[in-house]
Amino acid sequence: MWWIALSTCAAYAQDDGFDAYFATFQQAVAAKDREATAALTGFPFTSWDLVGKVPKKLTRGSEGGPVSLEHDAFVAAWPRLFDKEARAHVAAPNPVELGENGRGVGIWGGEDWAVWLVFERGEDGVWRLVGTDNVSG
% helix / strand / coil in the chain, to the nearest 5? Predict the structure, then answer.
């Protein structure tokens, strides 16, 4: 059973640029355009989901922590992040607010867990994909 949060916050309704950013992100992912997706990503990109799935030489960070990827490693890991199932969830998401400057989109999941794409708006006001996060419930 796939789980995606189906709620949004009232604050999310205000135009903070996320909708326009996310539409561009969706187009890049649908086109399987690794470079365009990377251009919409903040680095280092951090992911618990990629631990053990990406060659250590491409990552940085400490043992026991999340994988931390720079641009080239992110582009190489793109197929693992955005497989057919994840692309389908990106195409039809229901983003939820994760604090004042964050959004999340559920992309994989089971009955009591989910993996989220995490987006943040930087101090410059620009939205970026910054990582994945695992949520258990």
Answer: 35, 30, 35
Q: What is the pLDDT of residues 72-123, one digit of tens each?
A: 999 999 998 888 888 888 888 767 776 666 777 766 666 665 678 888 989 9
Q: What whole-number distance in Å separates Cα of residue 87 and Cα of residue 74?
A: 16
Element (H, E) at 104: strand 102-109
* Residue spans of alpha helices (H) in the chain: 18-30, 34-39, 71-81, 84-91
| Between 54 and 86, residue with greater pLDDT | 86
Closest to 87 in 3D by CA, of 19, 33, 6, 124:
33
Q: Which residues of 19-32 are buried (b: 16+ CB within 10 A; e: fewer)?
A: eebbeebbebbeee
φ and ψ at residue 16, rounded to 5 degrees: -110, 10
| Confidence at 21, pLDDT banded by 50, 70, 90 | very high
**pLDDT band at 62; cut points 50, 70, 90:** low
Whole-angstrom Cα distance, residue 33 to residue 27? Answer: 9
Indicate the pairing of strand 102-109 with strand 96-97.
antiparallel
